[in-house]
Amino acid sequence: MRQAVGVDHQARRHVILLGLMGAGKTTVGTDLAARLDVPLRDSDADMLAATGETARQLRDSLGEDALHAREAQHLLDSMARPDGAVICAAAAVADDARCVEALRRTHDLVVWLQVPPGVLAARFAREPHRPAYGVDTVAFLTAQAGRREPIYRALADLVVPTGGGAAGAGAEVETILDALRS
User: Fold this and answer.
1) Which terminus, N or C, of the chain has the lesser number of Cβ atoms within 10 Å?
2) Which residue range is the domain that position 145 belongs to?
């Protein structure tokens, strides 16, 4: 985890949510943004609004590299905005050196929503906007977790384990709010 030594927590502009696809960034982010009364900058929703296409459609029409480049630029643009926001970053930002460096240097609160790959895989059937990769979703997400979770861990100021239960994001939001207050 990052060490935010000497950071004035009142100076933080953004809360940045990291995690694998399906980790609950949008659900937690929506609730958190409402509680903080700040805008939500969600990679999936913002790209859909700008292009009329879901992440899956963009991946299918432009290719995975182009999708990930757009997702990375979304994070960098969102972090550069002067107004405070809750930013839901695409999972692939962990693979982009510019994003990793920006997240390493930021004074914003970086939160990793940690969810087991088996829980994430169960969500893919219910959420058609997510790009699908192969027939064994658990294996795919386990491989992604192996690559990306060490990066998320190194960048996060706060790790919030979640099983993503149907009860909503209340506990996760409270944990993040508590961190902001301390």
Assistant:
1) C
2) 11-166
Would residue 2 count as lying in a domain?
Answer: no
User: 3 in a domain, yes or no?
Assistant: no
Cβ atoms < 10 Å from Cβ of 141: 25
Return the residue matching tokens 């994070």.
Answer: 75
Q: Please provide residue 115's backbone torsions phi and psi, each rounded to the nearest 5 degrees.
A: -135, 135
In tens, the pLDDT along 71-80 reads: 999 999 999 9
Nearest to 116 by CA among 39, 23, 30: 23
Q: Which two tokens stand for residue 117?
A: 């790959």
User: What ranges make up the beta strands (E) of 71-164?
Assistant: 85-88, 109-114, 158-161
Question: Could you tell me if 86 and 38 are in contact, meaning their C-beta atoms sit under 8 angstroms apart?
Answer: yes
Q: What is the CATH number of the domain that holds 117?
A: 3.40.50.300
Number of structural domains, the chain? 1
Residue with tokens 């930002």: 93
Q: Is residue 152 part of a domain?
A: yes
- The pTM for the full model equals 0.87
Cα 44–50–53 angle (5° rounding)? Answer: 60
pLDDT band at 41 (very low <50, low <70, confident <90, very high): very high
Residue 11's pLDDT is what? 58
Residue 130 lies in a domain: yes
